[in-house]
Write a structure and sequence with these properties.
The complex is a heterodimer. Chain A is of the alpha/beta class. Helix content of chain A is 40%, strand content 15%. Chain B has a four-stranded mixed beta sheet, covered by helices on one side.
């Protein structure tokens, strides 16, 4: 019987993979549902004897089976998009059935956990530290240092929390990992639990990912025996972006409002329910099984650039021709990612801007495409890598509107704890409207109230409004507890710096 | 809101640490909202004040205080979908939705390389153009 492999990743399903799979099954083929290779422009991608066909529609089924399909892309593993990658975290992508324990074990699963459990915890922490693995959620904090803090903390109960609240636009690597290789995440959590001395772990996943939730539920039940005595519980978020921040995430698991907590105390010392807690991103934990395999740590440390070690699953998104998941060692240039690998824009128009690192990341001008993908290099250019999402915009994008949206998003998602974020985001949106408007800049109705003794009573010129915006950005950046208020100025300032002409509508 | 059903949901989470969020999800799912009765019942069961329960329920976008039987189409309006032109489709989609369908904003469905994207129930739809989006709204 002919064996056909089609992904059951949410993106493939959204592009009609179920219908295509059913059509192949109806012709008598055996259909195996596997994880996605991450070549999203080719989904639904059909694999037959290692050969790929995509994007497949119902009308292509016959031609694919008789070998005459014009959608043939040749051997999938040799496709340039795949062959150029260095896949460690996503080594199984496209190759295994996500919920098959058999496939997982046959592809090296659980070996790292068994090896780690035979070692004293301190040695596990040492190996993870030596690998140079840094938190993949955005902050880039060394994972080994965090684990050591939790390991050394006093307390009868400790927790592992997996942050799967992947709310940044242009990111989907956590989702793909949870849907495509959930056991690897559970194995990473079990290793982390052994290292820090935790008996129970939580995965906090966002409610916008129904397929990931379903896969994780099944995976946790299937692997329960294998990871025992460690236990894992799934918690589902409720639509709050700010819960991706680790302290609001902990509050949310505790059943509270997802408000940010002040640090210190660090979650590593007083985290979930007041106990020492290691909070790690999905990709950080999923990188651990590779690192803890025999010799994995030194291999990992040899990859990358300077202090950014190992590989990063980079997500190519937005207006890009070849969008998808591209895992490679740190150090690759932004231009290579966008133009060579991504193939430029999907619309065929020139690239105007790319936003790296989600809604709080800076907009980067093509002039800066030489920037190497590296935490420090991006930081020194007033930008951030964040969770590794790259969102491409073509020349039809209105960067003034995008800057306004950054404030709008911050206002909608602010937890309300810090004044600069809660009120600044609203005022920032109004200010950009004023700057972009051709009307006379009259004094604000509230400012002229008699009780507003210290407020200015006269209108502002455009230059003064721009200065006010700059002041507001500075206040938000330095006066907010977390990255939502603190980083919203990045997209705003970078848009204003590189595309000032987009802020002068009607003038 | 049917009291025995509410009690059964609450009883099912007895002994769970930090049970409020899972409880709110189950109640929203079963009744379509978190109303005053539910808040009082939750407050009693979890030894919280009603204000605390209301504070949590009103914090999260997923929970509503009144049920709305209309079908919901969630349209992603985040950066990656904007880069692929979702904003230009919104007026036509809103016109198609009218009062019959609730067209809501969502910030990211994780389909950012194949936007614009929408979610109806647990069904996801990607690579939308205006025509397809209107069709989805009309058949919702």
């Amino acid at each position: 019987m002919t064996l056909v492999r089609i992904s059951d990743d949410a993106l493939a399903l959204a592009c009609g993979a179920d219908e295509v799979a059913a059509a192949f099954a109806a012709t008598g083929c055996e259909v195996e549902r596997v994880s996605s290779w991450g070549m999203h422009w080719l989904e639904p991608l059909v694999e037959l004897d290692g050969q790929g066909f995509g994007p497949a529609t119902l009308g292509d089924v016959g031609a694919i089976l008789d070998g005459s399909s014009p959608k043939a892309i040749g051997p999938i593993a040799e496709h340039p998009f795949i062959a150029r990658q260095q896949r460690l975290t996503f080594a199984r992508a496209g190759k295994t059935r996500p919920l098959s324990l058999e496939d997982y074990a046959a592809s090296g699963g659980w070996r790292a956990m068994d090896r780690a459990r035979a070692m004293p915890p301190a040695q596990v922490v040492e190996e993870v530290t030596a690998s140079g693995l840094r938190g993949r959620g955005g902050a880039g904090f060394p994972a080994g240092v965090k684990w050591k803090t939790v390991m050394d903390a006093r307390g009868p109960v400790k927790y592992i929390v997996c942050n799967a609240d992947e709310g940044d636009s242009a990111t989907f690597a956590d989702r793909m990992l949870m849907e495509g290789d959930p056991f690897q995440l559970l194995e990473g959590m079990a290793i982390a639990a052994h290292a820090v001395g935790a008996a129970h772990g939580y995965i906090y996943v966002r409610s916008e990912y129904p397929h990931a939730i379903a896969k994780l539920k099944s995976a946790i039940a299937l692997a329960a025996e294998r990871v025992a005595p460690f236990t894992i519980e799934l918690r589902v978020g409720a639509g709050a972006y700010v819960c991706g921040e680790e302290t609001s995430l902990l509050n949310s698991i505790e059943g509270k409002r997802g408000e940010v907590r002040a640090k210190p105390p660090l979650p590593a010392l007083q985290g979930l329910f007041g106990c020492p807690t290691a909070v790690n991103n999905v990709l950080t934990l999923a990188a651990v099984p590779h690192i803890m395999a025999e010799g994995g740590a030194s291999l990992y440390a040899r990859l990358g650039l300077d202090r950014s070690k190992g590989t990063m699953p980079i997500q190519l998104a937005g207006n890009i021709r070849h969008g998808g998941l591209f895992e490679t060692a740190f150090g690759i240039s932004l231009g290579e990612l966008v133009n060579d690998i991504g193939g430029g824009t999907a619309s065929g128009r020139p690239v105007k801007a790319v936003q790296v690192g989600g809604p709080l990341g800076a907009y980067i001008h093509p002039d800066q495409f030489h920037l190497p993908f590296d935490y420090e290099a991006f930081a020194s250019a007033d930008a951030l890598i964040g969770h590794g999402g790259i969102c491409v915009f073509d020349d039809s994008a209105d960067m003034g509107a995008m800057a306004r949206f950054a404030f709008e998003f911050c206002a909608a998602e602010s937890c309300g704890k810090c004044t600069p974020c809660r009120i600044g985001a609203v005022r920032g949106g109004e200010l950009i409207d004023r700057i972009r408007s051709a009307d006379a800049h009259e004094a604000d109705a509230v400012e002229t109230l008699p009780q507003m003794h210290n407020a200015r009573k006269t209108g502002r010129s455009r230059a003064e409004d721009l200065q006010l915006l700059e002041d507001l950005c500075e206040t938000m950046q330095y006066g907010s507890l977390c990255a939502l208020g603190g980083f919203t100025p990045y997209p705003v300032r970078s848009a204003l710096r590189h595309w000032p002409e987009d802020f002068s509508d009607g003038i | 809101m049917n009291r025995p059903d509410l009690d059964a949901i609450i009883a099912a989470h007895a002994g769970v640490s930090g049970a409020l969020l899972p409880l709110l999800h189950d109640i929203q799912q079963a009744f379509g909202c978190i109303d005053a009765n539910a808040e009082v019942a939750l407050a009693n069961a979890l030894n919280l004040s009603r204000a605390e329960v209301h504070g949590v329920a009103s914090f999260y976008h997923d929970f509503t205080s009144e049920s709305d039987p209309r079908p919901v189409v969630q349209l992603c309006r985040a950066e990656a979908c904007k880069a692929r032109g979702v904003e230009a489709m919104v007026p036509a989609a809103e016109a198609a939705a009218g009062e019959r369908v609730r067209l809501t904003k969502v910030y990211c469905l994780g389909l950012c390389s194949a936007g614009p994207a929408a979610r109806i129930g647990d069904q996801l739809h990607a690579r939308l153009d205006a025509e397809r989006l209107i069709q989805l709204v009309q058949s919702a």
